[in-house]
Amino acid sequence: MNKLTYLCLIALSVITFASASPFSNETTTEAYAFNQVQRVRIDFTMPNGYVRHLLLGFTPNNAATDGVDYGYDALNADNFPDDLNWMIENQRYVIQGVGEFQNTKQYPLGMFISNAGDITIALDTLENFDSQIQVYLFDALNNTYTLLNEIDFEAYVTEGTHLNRYYIAFRNNTNGMVYNSASQQLSISENEIQDTSISYLRKSNEIYISSNQNISKLEVFNLLGKRILNQEDVNTKTFRFPTHFTNENYGIVRVHTNQGTTNKKLLFR
After folding, report:
1. pTM of the predicted protein model
2. How far apart are CA 19 and CA 28, in angstroms?
3. How would you classify the pairing of strands 117-127 and 136-139?
4. N or C end of the chain: which has fewer CB within 10 A?
5. Do 88 and 19 contact (CB within 8 A), yes or no?
6. What sign results for the dihedral spanned by CA atoms 159, 164, 170, 172?
7. Which of 21-25, 187-191, 200-204, 253-257 holds the top average pLDDT?
């Protein structure tokens, strides 16, 4: 690992403990600042199946900027044939530190593809946010937003360098079409027949499902596709159940009715 990447990981990834007395509740200013960095972790799955991890860190007191900041940004030191990176001043980065969180900001990504194929951009985790924020993948070419909190962005990409197209955003700034769950990708006629809502109740740590059709079965999968819950014969239009069956941070909930299935990606926290 090169020196700059190591410094960036210290600044944005490592939980720093204060060297205060064990009898004191006080922490150093530096430790407090490190622990308060808000992190958005993004995973890019390449056509060959390998995964690139990206980190976007929001710093308290605007310690970093949208430009290049030594100790907060880490250049891409790899030479992968297919890759996704933050673009800062026309350079490729795997870690980007910026100022305080603002949902009006968008952060450009550069996609570099030598092997045409299917790719996925997914939200891995959110850290240190008081409430859940919305994280979108904005495709400027098609003017579409994908709500990564609920569904991964999937596409077939051609060989070449794709700049000024993909952005991480935190709200729909241009009234582009929003894809925020698998149910929204059904045809209009299917949506008129089936209306199923799937949500996570944070206070009770439960999954809540409501449908205008009788729910016949529900399943929960982890992000690797392994089924971790299978509930048969539900036979009700509303259903709620606790998430103590899993330690996963994320899961895909699949609801079956006699009109079809609805899938939704949930954050279990």
Report:
1. 0.59
2. 8
3. unpaired
4. N
5. no
6. negative
7. 253-257
